[in-house]
Amino acid sequence: MEKKDNLFSIGEVAKYQNISKQTLIFYDKAGVFRPAWVDPANGYRYYSASQLDYLDTILIMKQIGFSLQEIKDHMQHYDLDSSLAMLRRQLDVIDQKVAGLKQVRRRVQNRCDQMEAARAHCAPGQPGIELEDAPEQELFCLPVEPPYTMREISIATKQCFARAAAGALPVFYQCGVVVPLEKIRAGQYTEAALAFLPMERAGQESCVRRLPAGRRACIYHVGDYLSVGRSYEKLLAWCGEQGLRVCSDSYEFCINDYLTTHDESEYITKIAFYVEQT
After folding, report:
1. pLDDT in tens, 216-227
2. Which residues form the HTH merR-type domain (predicted)?
3. Which 3 state secondary structure label does DSSP give 184?
4. Which are the contacts of 119, defined by CB distance < 8 A and separation ≥ 6?
């Protein structure tokens, strides 16, 4: 018992540091923080008072973002110079993470803004059709293979997300398709030629379509995708009534889709044509 007089049990250390006993056992097995003494009779772990400061250092370094292996290697022998160098390196890592989180936040904010705008446009009493002055926009595009059914559209969309993730491309959390105008004129409303993901910036990336700034006629289609034809007919008729000539393919932006609802009747698709006054 004399061996334990000036030691803390694993339960006491866990309580003081507000961590679990399992964490301390894991640190022991990983060779990062071993007890000062292990009772040979029962295997209970005990720690010295001086070790509590050492554990503080480990927990703070974990909070800063160091891995256990980095902590273990560093604490084999550390002093002011080595600690300063390691912390400065970690500042660079933190800055990169902050920049990444800011980028993710912009994309989530963009998705929220579009969903809120769509909900306002689709509210009862709203016309549902508008003219907008669209800014320049860049789309990461991949072709949809024949026969251009929903299956091929889904495959092309998944390939867009996979390629964007592999290349760390700055795409928004949104997808869409391009439907050729001749297909629309022929009533083949769901035969998309391209799947796309809107981008923050393209850089030198290939497979990018750059949309110019310009006037676009837009409608928000509510419902499953196969019923999109009724919104196309309404939008084309409205353009004719307003003396507007459609001068581009159709750009469909998924606003509320499988990412944000399980009910296809709640899907919202923004359909946009570039138009000119006749």
Report:
1. 999 999 999 999
2. 7-77
3. helix
4. 268
Return the pLDDT at 123: 80
Query: Which sign, positive or negative, has the C-alpha torsion 27, 31, 32, 36?
Result: positive
Q: What is the pLDDT of residues 177-201, one digit of tens each?
A: 999 999 999 999 999 999 999 998 7
Q: What is the pTM of this model?
A: 0.80
Tell me what pLDDT residue 127 has. Answer: 66
Beta 250-256 vs 268-277: how paired, if at all?
A: antiparallel
Q: Quick one: DSSP state of residue 208? A: E
Q: Could you give the 3-state DSSP secondary structure of residue 274?
A: strand
Q: CA 28, CA 32: separation in Å to the nearest integer? A: 6
The pair of structure tokens assigned to 201 is 């910036």
Residues constituting the chain: 278
Amino acid at 252: E
pLDDT tens, residue by residue, 113-129: 999 989 888 887 766 79
Q: Are 221 and 118 in contact (CB under 8 A)?
A: no
Residue 272 one-letter amino acid = A
How deeply is 204 buried, as exposed, middle or buried, from its count of CB atoms within 10 A (0-12, 13-18, 19+)?
Answer: exposed
What's the chain's average pLDDT?
A: 93
Beta carbons within 10 angstroms of residue 148's beta carbon? 20
Place of tokens 């800055």: 95
- Count of CB atoms situated within 10 Å of the CB of 233: 13
Q: Of 173, 197, 192, which Cα lies nearest the Cα of 250?
A: 192
Asked if 13 and 55 count as a contact pair (C-beta separation under 8 A), the reply is: yes
CA–CA gap between residue 164 and residue 153 (Å, rounded): 17
Q: Which among 57, 52, 55 has a CA at the least distance from the CA of 7?
A: 52
For residues 217 and 278, is the Cβ–Cβ distance under 8 A? Answer: no
Task: Give CA–CA dist 185/13, Å, rounded.
Answer: 74
